[in-house]
Amino acid sequence: MKTSKFLLLLAAALFSSGILSAANDVPAGYPLKKCVVSGESLGEMGKPVKVTSEGTDVYLCCKSCVKDFNKEPAKYVKMVKDAAPKK
Known about the structure:
By secondary structure, the chain is an alpha+beta fold. About 40% of the residues lie in helices and about 10% in strands. The chain has a single domain (about 25-85), classed as CATH 2.30.170.
């Protein structure tokens, strides 16, 4: 019972702090709300799929988009980097 309460409090803290977005398990700092491959909203087709290329995490709406991502990963990484806030 104590473990359940702890996990519930931990999850609430992560979501409220913005580390994770409750709607779709994408980090709050991720600059896009839509899949770079399909254009579908992230989280609309279940849990988003994270792929990493060139040291950049990219979130896709579903496993079906991974194949297309792998054909042109640099194109999609550029889309994420271009959407990121400039420092």
